[in-house]
Structures are given as C-alpha cells and as structure tokens.
Design goal:
- With 215 residues, this protein is mainly alpha-helical.
- The chain has two domains: 87 residues, Endonuclease Iii, domain 2; 109 residues, Endonuclease III, domain 1 (Orthogonal Bundle), CATH 1.10.340.30.
- The chain is built from 14 helices and no strands.
- The longest helix is centred in the middle third of the chain and has 15 residues.
C-alpha cells in the first residue's frame, strides 16, 4: 500500500524525506548523500507500460547512442504518431522492422510485448497502478525475453514506485561495493537482502548508488 500511495507523486519533498532516511543509516550513506546532493530522479509517468517495455528492450545491451538511432528508425516508420500502437506495430512487416537494426531475438520480444498488450497481459497504466510490484513482476516476466530487471525499470521510471532496487543491476551492486569499500560486489541475492534496510525508499537508494564515482 505504501508503494501505491507514494507513487501517486514522487515529489521533491518525498526525495528529501528519502535522502534523510538513507543518510541516517550510517556514516557512509550520510557522506555520499552530502556529496551528491538532492535526489534528481526523473520518471516518465506519461508512458503506457507497453511503450516503456518496448523502449527498454530496444536499448538492451546497446550504448545509448545506438539505441537512440534504432528507436528513431522504428518511430520514423509511423509518422503522425508519438509511438506506434500495439496493433500498428504488429501490422508492420517483420522485414521492415528488422531493417531498423533490431536483432531477430529482440524484435521477437518487441512484437511479443505488442501482442501481449493486445491480449491484455501487458496492463494499461491505469490497471498497472492498481497492481502490486510483485504482481507486475510475475505477470510481465512471463513474456519471452522480458526479465526482472526490465520490469523493475518500468516500475521505477514509468510507475514511479518508490521501493524498487534492481539487485541484478551491475551499477547498483558495484556502487554498493564502492560505498562500503568491499573487495567484491555482493551477489544479486545478497544485494536483495542488504536492500531490506533501505525500504521503503529503495528506488532512491538505487539512484544514489548509481551515482557513486569510480575511484
């Protein structure tokens, strides 16, 4: 219930509350937050889950510039729309979409997401807001090519959930290693357990961990 309540509007006031909470955990967190300053997490709440998932898959395992280029070529196929509907995407010939630069596997996943949106498996934003984090993760990771990390990005950036820490994320685990001066980064399982102490502000903790510089 806390996730849904706060997610209605993650404001600068909520960020300040989260930063104070994290800084109170120990001296390492306090020093890091003081150095970084206020949280400037930027969500994209206007997007539908379908669009957010397609965008996330398009950028997977690519540098941002390459992802930008491929996505721009895809969007150019649909003039007059900000983003193609699932039906429009599915109606396009596979070869035309492949020419944008997608691998066969990635395009299969994207079209699978579109079909799942048509079938009601990928919820609308209104429906998604009524579902718990765990329910969305279980529902969407059933789709071929959609992993837990992808759904967690949806929860963080599209649905503005405040208590998500992607424990599989290299940047999060490496950030924690540097924060604590560890010889080795925690495993995803260990990171998930460690993050319990960051709740109910694990999203903000992730944002700060992503900003620990390499020394």
């Amino acid at each position: 219930m806390l996730s849904r309540t706060i997610a209605a509007g993650l404001s600068s006031q909520a960020y300040r509350k989260a930063a104070c909470f994290l800084a109170s955990l120990d001296e390492d967190w306090a020093q890091h937050i003081a150095e970084v300053g206020p949280c400037r997490h930027e969500a994209k709440p206007a997007r539908e889950p379908y669009e957010a998932l397609v965008r996330a898959i398009a950028y997977q395992q690519l540098h941002a510039r390459a992802g930008d280029a491929i996505l721009a070529r895809l969007l150019a196929l649909y003039p007059g729309t900000t983003f193609p509907s699932p039906e429009l995407l599915l109606a396009t010939e596979l070869q035309i979409q492949r020419a944008c630069g997608f691998s066969a596997a990635k395009l299969d996943t994207i079209r699978g997401i579109a079909q799942a949106a048509v079938d009601g498996i990928v919820p609308t934003r209104v429906e998604a807001l009524s579902l718990s984090d765990d329910a969305l993760i279980e529902r969407l990771t059933s789709l071929r090519g959609v992993g837990r990390w992808t759904v967690e990005m949806l929860l963080i950036y599209t649905l503005e959930r405040p208590d998500i820490l992607p424990a599989d994320d290299f940047g999060v685990r490496e950030g924690y290693r540097r924060l604590k001066g560890l010889d080795k980064a925690p495993t995803p399982r260990q990171m998930r357990a460690i993050s319990d102490s960051f709740s109910p502000w694990r999203t903000i903790a992730s944002w700060y961990l992503w900003r620990i510089p390499t020394r």
